Amino acid sequence: MEALVILSKVEQEYLLHAIEAALPVRQSRQLCLWTQGQFQALLPHRIMVCLQFGAQDEVQHVECLHSTVLDAGLLARLGDKTDGLALRLARHCRDGVRLPAMLDASGAGEARLPLAPFMDELRALGLDNLLVHGTERLPGGSTFFVLFGLPHRPRPRHAYFFELLLPHLHLALQRVGQQQRQARAGALARPVSAREMEILHWVREGKSNEEIGLILGISGLTVKNHLQRLYRLLGVSNRAHAIARGMALHLFEQSIPPLARAA
Questions:
Q1: How far apart are CA 170 and CA 157, in angstroms?
Q2: Do 52 and 135 form a contact (C-beta atoms < 8 A)?
Q3: Looking at residue 246, what is its pLDDT?
Q4: Separation CA 118–CA 120 (nearest Å)
Q5: Mean pLDDT, consecutive 10-residue segments, the chain of 263 residues?
Q6: CA torsion 143→21→27→71, rounded to 10°?
Q7: 14, containing H or E segment
Q8: 179-203 as b/e, with b when 16 or more CB fall inside 10 Å?
Q9: Which residue among 15, 27, 194, 198 has the highest number of C-beta atoms inside a 10 angstrom radius?
Q10: Which residues partner with 53 through β-bridges?
Q11: What's the chain's Rg over C-alpha atoms?
Q12: Measuring CA to CA, which residue among 72, 55, 147 is closest to residue 103?
């Protein structure tokens, strides 16, 4: 990592373009476009997982960024907030691994040593080469970034690019997380009630009003009335739109209603 890296004129231009493109990033879509666009010119990869931590090291926000359609199970294994591979890498690296760190899954080179415990898992997922970096613990929260599936063996040069871009990644992710928290807090006129959340859960499961009524011990007409109020609250007109709006507002990430858990 200490080896002197001299950027070529083309690399300097790529770096400047990447930094400029990061400045207006405020939303998840913009973050995805940046990391899968200008960022890729310097650090090509298949998937990037971004983790935002709070002041007490709690996971506040996770972004899985990729340009192609990927299996939902793979994304869950990488970006799960409780035991995802990216989170385990972050915890492992915070226990003393020097950052940025690299893993060459071919098994060649000393760069593989700090992340060697993850070698077999990465090979099984088909994401051989790995590059990770993150900030130190900061009063306002820290961030950690994992590049999965680099097309070539990671080199100290790639780690240097990551080092240069880390402040811009950190600030961009912080802005995205803040924007999403503000959107969730101010998007609805009132919170979704526990009963409405139960009904929305079963709507997502494909249940009819009558079936939901049987599950909850109320009439189908009462379910319909709850749904109409929920539609007005969410600003939608049908079940499909209600589910989509609920996902956009991260409502399904809240605690699962007791009856839903028992079913």
A1: 20
A2: no
A3: 85
A4: 6
A5: 81 96 93 94 96 90 90 92 95 90 73 80 90 92 96 92 97 89 68 91 94 94 95 89 84 62 47
A6: -70
A7: helix 9-22
A8: ebeeeeeeeeeeebeebbbbbbbbb
A9: 198
A10: 59
A11: 22
A12: 147
Phi, psi of 88 (to 5 degrees): -65, -35
User: Which residue is it, tokens 């249940």?
Assistant: 207
Please name which of 246, 164, 259, 166 lies closest in space to residue 214, comparing C-alpha atoms: 259
CA atoms within 13 A on the CB side of 89: 34
CB-count burial class (<10 Å; 0-12, 13-18, 19+) for 71: exposed
Q: Tell me if 173 sits within 8 A of 31, measured CB to CB.
A: yes
Domain ranges of the chain: 9-186, 194-262
Which of 253, 257, 213, 251 has the alpha carbon at shortest distance from 230? 251
Start-end of H helices in 135-257: 156-186, 194-204, 209-216, 220-234, 239-248
DSSP string computed for 99-164: SSEEE-TT--SGGGGGGGGGHHHHHHHT---EEEEEPPP-TT--EEEEEE--SS---HHHHHHHHH
Pick the CATH number of 194-262 from 3.40.50.620, 1.10.10.10, 3.40.50.2300, 1.20.810.10: 1.10.10.10
Task: Look up the CATH architecture of domain 9-186.
Answer: 2-Layer Sandwich (3.30)
Nearest to 198 by CA among 157, 255, 248: 255
Angle at alpha carbon of residue 76, lines to 70 and 81, rounded to 5°? 140
